[in-house]
Design a protein that fits this description.
Blueprint lengths: L19 E8 L4 E10 L2 E11 L9 E11 L3 H18 L12
Antiparallel strand pairs: 1-2, 2-3, 3-4
Length: about 110
C-alpha cells in the first residue's frame, strides 16, 4: 500500500476579515517601517507585526509594501511578548547598549 502526500495550503477565508486596526508604525530606517496591527483571520484574533518597505526607492510612505518579514501571533500571547520585550530592554540597559536617558517608567 502506498500513500501519496499532496501539499496543501491553508483554507481560504469564506468571508472578509471583521476588522484590521493599525496600532502603531515604527520607522526602522529610511526605506522601511514596522507596522503593528490587530486583525481577524479565519476567526482568529491576531497581532500582526510586519516590515513594510518603500518599493519605489524614493522614501515615499504612500508606496509601502509588505515584505516577507512578519510575525502573526494570537492576541492571547501579547502579555508574554510584552514581558519578553521588557526583559530584552532591561538587559540592553544593563549592557549599556541603549541610552538610559530614553528609559521609560514601564520597566
Amino acid at each position: 500500500m502506498t500513500m501519496t502526500l499532496n501539499p496543501h495550503s491553508a483554507p481560504k477565508m469564506s468571508r472578509a476579515p471583521r476588522y484590521r486596526h493599525k496600532v502603531a508604525s515604527i520607522r526602522k530606517n529610511s526605506l522601511e517601517r514596522i507596522d503593528i496591527e490587530l486583525i481577524e483571520y479565519n476567526g482568529n484574533d491576531l497581532c500582526h507585526i510586519a516590515v513594510k518597505r518603500d518599493s519605489s526607492g524614493h522614501h515615499s510612505l504612500n508606496r509601502m509594501k509588505e515584505t516577507a518579514r512578519y510575525v502573526s501571533l494570537n492576541v492571547r500571547l501579547l502579555p508574554q511578548l510584552i514581558t519578553a520585550l521588557q526583559d530584552a530592554q532591561r538587559k540592553a540597559f544593563e549592557l549599556g547598549i541603549v541610552d538610559t536617558s530614553n528609559q521609560e517608567a514601564t520597566i
